[in-house]
Amino acid sequence: MNSNKRINKVECFQEEKAILSGNKKQKINNGEYAKRYREKKKQELIKAQKKTQELITEITSLRERILNLEKENERMSRENLSLCEKIQNLEKDALDLNWTTKICEEINNSTFNKVFAIPLFLTQNQSTSFISPSQGINISSSNQDAFNTINETINNTIDENNSSFYNFTYLRN
Known about the structure:
Blueprint: H1 2-21, H2 30-109, E1 116-120, E2 127-132, E3 137-142, H3 143-161, E4 166-167
Parallel strand pairs: 1-4
Antiparallel strand pairs: 1-2, 2-3
């Protein structure tokens, strides 16, 4: 059985010699064939090494790109979280503004002879915006002036109409 394998190897060797020579019938001595064969395999090895080096370079480049993309992804995730927080704050502000607007509309459309005072952003020694329906406009002034105007309006209304009043205070965090 081993002799059959050896014969097959010799036949393959003879076949390769004939293929390299370009003519199956042409005889090539073993030394010349071996030299050509080694040279061919050496060239194939050099090509394979070059291709391997190119692939290693490409893999390294892709790894660097992946790391950069992961860093960019982390940065974008942090930015996304920050934007989500800003959106939530804006939504809260929009709801607050909507609530304030509805109260103001209700006050302006009210047929009752009652005073509605809505101080906004009340902080000591800072400007305050508030709405007084008897004046029908937004007024900005110091806190003390704002409360004086509200109290004066309330007192006048109570005196004139002998009615109760509602005081809505909207404090914003």
